[in-house]
Amino acid sequence: MSETVKYLLDENRMPTFWYNLVADLPKPPPPVLHPGTLQPIGPDDLAPLFPMSLIQQEVATEREIAIPEPVRAIYRQWRPSPLYRARRLEKVLDTPARIYYKYEGVSPAGSHKPNTAVAQAFYNKEAGIRRIATETGAGQWGSSLAFAGALFGIDVHVFMVRVSYQQKPYRRALMETYGARCVASPSEETASGRAALARHADHPGSLGIAISEAVEVAAQRPDTNYALGSVLNHVLLHQTVTGLEAMAQLELADDYPDVVVGCAGGGSNLAGIAFPFIGAHLRGGPAVRTLAIEPAACPTLTRGRYAYDFGDTAHLTPLVKMHTLGATFTPPGFHAGGLRYHGMAPLVSHAKELGLIEARAYHQIGCFEAGVQFARAEGILPAPESNHAVRGAIDEALRCKAEGVSRAILFNLSGHGHFDMQAYMDYFAGKLLDQNYDEAELSMALSGLPAVEA
User: pLDDT value at position 137?
Assistant: First the structure.
């Protein structure tokens, strides 16, 4: 039996296209609606925020969309990323499971986010855009867009959720090193930020508020566009390079996953690793269980309502049908900042409604326990977000042990935790708490959902 640990692809085997799950779905996803007319939006409605090339990708129905060569040229700096067989972790767990992880922390920004950041910066540069406004939770997306902006000569303005801005100063420093401007959200720079601060002077911030601020800035200037690091179809599309590579690498291992696991906040890394496998099954290939692991303090898929909602707190965005906790919902400030979003990607939500994705919610202490166990076995320190996927994969491996069954488990190790050491210090000091959302606030946020007939 081979004892291979890592499965590598040559650069010439990097995918030449992104995969679009919409092409293989048995039922098309619900349309995006204009908040004023409640009618499906058209390209002109999105033109103030996005270049037409990305708008076309947002509504694309073809299965394969070519990756532009300038994007692939930059991808080559870290792609194809390695696929590892977690042999030491398997021994620690004493499990018959075969555990694989796709490691996206090898990118310059340390996560999967540059897969879409580079693509979005490229298309904006082609459209003549000189400035991009965006939001970030944990800082991985902000870092990635800052990196991409530096490569294409685009100024990047980042609104970082205030609690993460305070928790993760080194992420902020990385953004500034790449040349981006980073401010804590809510800020005094926008009407939506000032409104949030008027309601709560010490507001911890939320991704919904940060999105409102970035969209407001982008809408006011013709030379500025908006970019989102998750949730939207074109973002999920760009991330499928991860799963496509994993498919080829598992062929090298002469294996195929029974279970695919990803952490879930907005949905991009989960979609990136899982959608190609889900699509292959829909086309007649082997069945694969896909597990979305989300935080118990912001349980969008397991507790949210599948309904039309705004993507931001100030209601500046179109209406999308997704699993949502309500656009005004503010989750507690737990350490996995990238998972603190009130809604789940519409395409991930639709796939769950079709029975293609399962969801579980975990508290953070158990996830950090899994991350530390993984680090001590495999040597890689996961980001707090990625710890959720590690927890899910370990639980599946222990289930194999209990049942005496060998299954192949694939998870996306979406980023490293080198900028999150305070979270680990808090964990080891016993200061990390399992936080729960406020039921009253959730009820209030859900009661404010737009009145749209399904």
Answer: 85
Please give the Cα distance from 399 to 407 (Å, whole number): 10
Going from the first residue of the chain to its last (454 residues), give the mean pLDDT of each consecutive group of 10, the final group possibly shorter: 88 97 97 91 89 95 98 98 98 98 97 98 96 91 97 97 89 96 94 92 88 91 92 97 98 98 95 98 97 94 94 86 91 71 95 98 96 98 96 98 98 95 94 86 88 75
The dihedral over CA atoms of 146, 171, 190, 196, expressed in degrees to the nearest 10, equals 150
Q: Judge whether 453 and 308 are in contact, CB under 8 Å.
A: no
CA distance 52 to 226: 13
User: How high is the pLDDT of residue 314?
Assistant: 79
CA dist 219 and 225 (Å) reads 7
Q: Can you give the pLDDT at residue 1?
A: 46
**Please, what's the largest Cα pairwise distance for the chain?**
64
Query: Phi and psi dihedrals of 7, rounded to 5?
Result: -115, 115
Tokens of 59: 């509504």
Residues composing the chain: 454
Which tokens is 380 given?
A: 């890689």
* Angle in degrees, 0-180, between the axes of helices 384-403 and 364-378, rounded to the nearest 10: 80
Enumerate domains of the chain plus CATH numbers.
6-13+66-110+234-447 (3.40.50.1100)
- Rounded Cα distance, 96 and 79, in Å: 30
Whole-model pTM?
0.95
Q: Write the CB contacts of 194 (distance below 8 Å, at least 6 apart in sequence).
A: 186, 188
Give me the pLDDT at residue 341, please.
Answer: 85
H or E element: which one contains 226?
strand 224-226
The two structure tokens encoding residue 385: 């977000």
Q: Are 44 and 319 in contact (CB under 8 A)?
A: no
CB 248 within 8 A of CB 254: no
Nearest residue to 348 via CA among 282, 262, 449, 408? 262
Backbone angles phi, psi at 59, to 5 degrees: -110, 10
* CA-wise closest residue to 240 among 265, 268, 199: 268
